[in-house]
From TrEMBL:
Name of the protein in its database record: Molybdate ABC transporter substrate-binding protein
Lineage, broadest ranks: Bacteria, Bacillati, Bacillota, Bacilli, Bacillales
UniProt keyword annotations, A-Z: Metal-binding, Molybdenum, Signal
Origin species: Staphylococcus gallinarum
Coiled-coil region list: none
InterPro entries with a match to the protein in the record: ModA, ModA/WtpA
Similarity comment text for this entry: Belongs to the bacterial solute-binding protein ModA family.
Xref: PANTHER family: MOLYBDATE-BINDING PERIPLASMIC PROTEIN (PTHR30632), SULFATE-BINDING PROTEIN (PTHR30632:SF0)
């Protein structure tokens, strides 16, 4: 090999390495961009258990307006959901059954773009064959089902109502606690509790699903309305778009369909 070939060969090898490096870098950047886009197209909503049915319709309407978006839900008591978010659990939106838990996250700067999206009512329910007219009719051995006070807003509302009415100490020995309002319904439905406090929307959906074993006995007249509040809990653009969607007439009509006030 003559003296001119060696430098030329070295130059060719050097250029090839640089081009390959650029190609790999471009591919990597392209992959990173694609991963980010895919992440932006997913939305994780933490929602109160009382929203289990209505959110399915909200999801369908939202996804029609936002093609390619995949919305998934994590249901539970609002307080439990807040605690999950505080501990770093993945969530883009919190749809609470109260204002307290969203406000707590807002103070910690873990929630933004808050919106009061619905109202609900608390009612006393019982089995269809029960003869009770009010919670004070409970007999020895009877059970009154409430959501866990620390994590389920409906349970907290019920406890406060009973205290305001001067009934709490009388019925305290009858109380059994449930992880959410759906479990309260189940307790009454199965006869594990004679009475229970749930949201009006829960009973409506239960009856809509063909279950007529549970009936409304009394309407709890609370001193303050039950307000449902939502907020973004991540920086995703899609999270804010979900909260904005809750403000639309379409979302409000769906909430009203399920007997929420919106």
């Amino acid at each position: 090999m003559n003296k001119y070939c060696k430098p030329l060969l070295l130059m060719i090898i050097t250029v090839s390495v640089i081009v390959a490096g650029c190609s790999n870098s471009t591919a990597k950047n392209s992959g990173d961009t694609k991963d980010k886009e895919n992440e932006e197209q997913t939305l994780q909503v933490s929602a109160a258990a009382s929203l289990t049915d209505v959110t399915k319709d909200l999801e369908q309407a939202f996804e029609k307006q936002h093609k390619g978006v995949d919305v998934s839900f994590n249901y539970g008591g609002s307080g439990a959901l807040r605690q999950q978010i505080e501990k770093g659990a993945p969530a883009d939106v919190l749809m609470s059954a109260n204002t307290k838990d969203v406000d707590a996250l807002t103070k910690q700067k873990k929630a933004h773009h808050t919106y009061n999206y619905a109202k609900n009512k608390l009612i006393l329910i019982g089995g269809d064959k029960e003869k009770y007219h009010q919670v004070s009719d409970l007999q020895q051995g009877d059970k009154l089902a409430l959501g866990e006070v620390k994590s389920v807003p409906a349970g907290k509302y019920a406890e406060q109502y009973l205290k305001d009415q001067g009934l709490y100490h009388k019925v305290q020995g009858h109380i059994v606690y449930a992880k959410d309002v759906r479990q309260v319904l189940n307790y009454v439905d199965k006869g594990n509790a004679q009475l229970g406090y749930v949201y009006k929307t829960d009973l409506y959906q239960n009856q809509k699903n063909g279950n007529d074993k549970v009936k409304e006995i009394d309407d709890a007249q609370l001193k303050k309305p039950i307000i449902y509040k939502a907020a973004t809990t991540s920086n995703k653009k899609m999270a804010k778009e979900w909260v904005d969607f809750l403000k639309t007439n379409k979302a409000k009509s769906i909430l009203k369909k399920y007997k929420f006030e919106a």
